[in-house]
């Protein structure tokens, strides 16, 4: 059985998140609203719109236990949304609660902690806001992680212990911080990242192999390994107990989002429009394939072709448009301009969708093409080449 493909919008999707039972989906359609979709049989239908931000929403996360949504935006704000009865109708509606971030640049990424008693907001203000609820004021307040961040923070991810936080930023570094808040957190047990963890302790700092922005970060299920992707078309896997770093350099376009599917497997995607699978251990890591079968015939009747982003005919189309102003395809039909991948543009968000015990069985992706795809994480297309990278 192939991937599930849903065309949600004609506009780019900047972020997505599923409800705990996966019956609802929250997406940002490249604007300042969150659109809630409900699943009806084999389709997704819009049901609610969350309107409070006044600039582009950059990130969404849906808490699996408390059923709360947190959103971050370029308007320098974040809101926590929770369902409550409408006094007039009695119908459940989503109501926002203000988050006091105290930043002067865009909020770029947001993630709930595992216990859902706090969340982290990355920003362009060279700071990460660790937010917790103030019951007296009935809003969310923040403490900021700042040093030694020197540029925009692009992504964050929580360690399973609810205290450590990984962050990737445009200063070409991936870092692990302590986000311990005395009033909220229990003292964490010692780990490979350290034992004494007061707030803003830097537990690890790792550089991009060739000096690229660090687009995404993620802890393994145990929390003992860190992975991050960089704009130099590489993915790095850090074993702090070693300490050593495995760097896998790929010849495709950069990866911008990742998810661990097990302790020895990662799915990552980005500008090459397909999810790649990486596998390994302390002994080494390698790319093992793609979840997208780019060598077989497509459901829309497109023929099989060589693995890669564009067929030769599409390359000719763009070359002719550039050199001769010719806008038709090389074959005259226009069909060759389509990518051989399911996603027709950059994948912006990749998340675990369904678990099978300790391992992730399915992942979901959304992208600039407005499409949602749910993939079987074990359905790997191996062999051949992707962008010059040998897969085995």
What does this structure look like?
- With 392 residues, the chain is mainly beta.
- The chain has one domain (4-390): Methylamine Dehydrogenase, Chain H, CATH 2.130.10.
- Helices cover 3% and strands 48% of the residues.
- The protein is built from one helix and 30 strands.
- It has one helix at residues 312-323, and strands at 4-7, 15-18, 24-28, 33-40, 43-51, 57-62, 69-73, 78-85, 92-100, 107-112, 118-123, 128-134, 139-145, 153-158, 164-169, 173-178, 202-207, 214-219, 226-230, 234-239, 244-249, 255-262, 265-270, 276-281, 284-290, 347-356, 359-367, 371-376, 385-386, 389-390.
- β7 (69-73) and β8 (78-85) form a beta hairpin.
- It is globular.
- The model is unreliable at 299-313, 322-326, 329-335 and 383-392 (pLDDT under 50).
What does the secondary structure layout of this molecule look like, with pairings?
Elements: E1 4-7, E2 15-18, E3 24-28, E4 33-40, E5 43-51, E6 57-62, E7 69-73, E8 78-85, E9 92-100, E10 107-112, E11 118-123, E12 128-134, E13 139-145, E14 153-158, E15 164-169, E16 173-178, E17 202-207, E18 214-219, E19 226-230, E20 234-239, E21 244-249, E22 255-262, E23 265-270, E24 276-281, E25 284-290, H1 312-323, E26 347-356, E27 359-367, E28 371-376, E29 385-386, E30 389-390
Parallel strand pairs: 9-13
Antiparallel strand pairs: 1-28, 2-3, 3-4, 4-5, 6-7, 7-8, 8-9, 10-11, 11-12, 12-13, 14-15, 15-16, 16-17, 18-19, 19-20, 20-21, 22-23, 23-24, 24-25, 26-27, 27-28, 29-30
Primary descriptors:
392 residues; mainly beta; Methylamine Dehydrogenase, Chain H; eight-stranded mixed β-sheet; four-stranded antiparallel β-sheet; globular; disordered C terminus
């Amino acid at each position: 059985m192939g991937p599930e493909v849903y065309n949600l919008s004609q506009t780019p999707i900047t972020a997505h998140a599923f409800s705990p039972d996966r019956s609802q989906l929250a997406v940002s359609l490249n604007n300042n609203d969150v659109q809630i979709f409900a699943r009806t049989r084999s389709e997704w239908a819009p049901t609610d719109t969350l309107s409070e931000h006044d600039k582009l929403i950059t990130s969404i996360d849906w808490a699996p236990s408390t059923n709360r949504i947190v959103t971050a935006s370029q308007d320098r704000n974040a809101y926590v949304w929770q369902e409550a009865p409408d006094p007039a109708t009695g119908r459940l509606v989503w109501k926002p609660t203000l988050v006091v971030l105290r930043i002067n640049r865009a909020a770029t990424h947001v993630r709930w902690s595992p216990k859902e008693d706090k969340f982290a907001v990355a920003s362009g203000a060279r700071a990460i806001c660790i937010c917790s609820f103030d019951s007296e004021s009935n809003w969310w307040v923040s403490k900021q992680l700042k040093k030694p961040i020197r540029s925009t923070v692009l992504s964050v991810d929580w360690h399973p212990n609810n205290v450590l936080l990984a962050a990737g930023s445009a200063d070409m570094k991936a870092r692990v911080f302590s986000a311990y808040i005395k009033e909220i957190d229990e003292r964490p047990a010692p780990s490979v990242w350290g034992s004494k963890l007061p707030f803003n302790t830097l537990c690890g700092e790792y550089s991009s192999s060739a000096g690229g922005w660090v687009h995404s970060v993620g802890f393994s299920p145990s929390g003992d390994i860190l992975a991050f992707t960089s704009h130099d078309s590489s993915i790095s896997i850090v074993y702090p107990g070693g300490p050593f770093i495995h760097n896998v350099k790929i010849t495709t376009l950069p990866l911008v989002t990742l998810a661990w599917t097990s302790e020895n497997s990662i799915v990552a995607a980005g500008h090459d429009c397909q999810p790649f699978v990486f596998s390994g251990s302390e002994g080494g890591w390698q790319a093992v394939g793609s979840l997208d079968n780019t060598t077989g015939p497509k459901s829309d009747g497109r023929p099989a072709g060589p693995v890669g982003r564009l067929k030769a005919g599409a390359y000719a189309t763009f070359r002719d448009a550039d050199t001769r102003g010719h806008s038709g395809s090389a074959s005259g039909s226009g069909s060759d301009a389509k990518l051989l991948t399911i996603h027709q543009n950059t994948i912006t968000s990749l998340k675990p969708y369904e678990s099978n015990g300790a391992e992730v069985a399915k992942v979901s992706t959304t992208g600039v093409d407005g499409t949602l795809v749910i993939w079987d994480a074990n359905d790997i297309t191996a062999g051949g080449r992707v962008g010059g990278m040998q897969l085995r």
